[in-house]
Each structure stands twice: as structure tokens, then as C-alpha cells.
């Protein structure tokens, strides 16, 4: 089977997605949370991560910081996949816990909902290893004055 070359716009979009994935990997906080970001299409993202006992609260399930970090990142990258010139900033995030997240692999899924100029709205959810939703949330993100191209980690 022959590979079909990407159209210039599609090639640019794919390069932007890979550069955002590189930016995610370069963030120092991700040394604390073993996770992998994947952006397959504009307005979506997925973060695979593992929950171990080091991330538990005293009652033996994932601490709320894990939920927030993964859902904020998933929603953020879904929104920033639509913006190729500027870094977005989180301006607010509402989070709802629906089930304790236990040990094992999990996934945060992000999806852009609305906005394309200055403010973006995106949602995220966490799915555990059994396929059940453990949390969901909605974030608002705004364009900053920080150019993506100026960030060391932003490279295809």
C-alpha cells in the first residue's frame, strides 16, 4: 500500500500536533506524573497515564490533584490544537468526581466545545481501566501573549 502524501495544510496541522505533544513531554511537572499525550485530530486529545499508590490519598484512591492535572491538560491540549501561534492559559476549570480512581492504567480525553478567537471552552473526562468514567470537567482557556514557537519544548 502506498502512503498518500499529506496536503500542505494537513502536514502543517500534523506538525503542530506533534510539536504540542513534544511541549507536553518537556513540562517539568510531567516528571511527577508518568503520562503520554496524543493528539489525533483538531479539537481532541488523549492522555494515557498510570495511577499507582504514590498518587493515592489516605483512603487508597487517586488524589484530586491527579484528576485535575490530567483533565486540565486534556482539555487544554484539545483547545490548543486549534491554535498554532499562541500558548493558551487556563482561566477556569469545573471538575466533577463520579467514581474513585484506583490503581492501574487510565485515560483522560479532551474535546473542544466552543470558541475560536480569544476564549476557548473544552471538556475532559477520565476513564479507568474498566472503561468507566471517573470524573468529568469543563475548562475555559484564553490566548496568551506567549508565542508557541518561542517555547523550547514546542518542536515537531
UniProtKB/TrEMBL annotation:
Q: Which GO terms describe its molecular function?
A: thiolester hydrolase activity
What range(s) does the Thioesterase domain occupy? 60-135
Query: Which InterPro entries does its entry note?
Result: HotDog_dom_sf, Thioestr_dom
Q: Which domain of life is it from?
A: Bacteria
Pfam families for the chain: 4HBT (PF03061)
Q: What is this protein called?
A: PaaI family thioesterase
Protein source organism:
Sphingomonas ginkgonis
Amino acid at each position: 500500500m502506498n502512503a498518500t502524501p499529506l496536503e500542505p495544510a494537513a502536514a502543517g496541522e500534523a506538525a503542530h500536533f506533534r510539536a504540542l505533544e513534544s511541549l507536553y513531554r518537556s513540562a517539568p511537572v510531567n516528571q511527577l506524573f508518568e503520562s503520554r499525550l496524543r493528539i489525533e485530530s483538531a479539537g481532541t486529545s488523549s492522555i494515557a497515564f498510570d495511577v499507582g499508590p504514590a498518587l493515592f490519598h489516605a483512603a487508597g484512591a487517586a488524589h484530586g490533584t491527579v484528576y485535575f492535572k490530567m483533565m486540565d491538560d486534556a482539555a487544554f491540549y484539545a483547545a490548543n490544537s486549534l491554535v498554532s501561534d499562541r500558548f493558551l492559559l487556563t482561566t477556569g476549570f469545573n471538575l466533577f468526581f463520579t467514581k474513585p480512581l484506583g490503581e492501574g492504567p487510565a485515560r483522560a480525553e479532551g474535546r473542544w466545545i466552543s470558541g475560536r478567537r480569544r476564549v476557548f471552552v473544552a471538556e475532559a473526562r477520565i476513564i479507568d481501566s474498566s472503561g468507566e468514567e471517573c470524573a468529568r470537567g469543563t475548562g475555559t482557556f484564553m490566548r496568551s501573549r506567549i508565542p508557541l514557537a518561542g517555547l523550547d519544548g514546542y518542536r515537531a
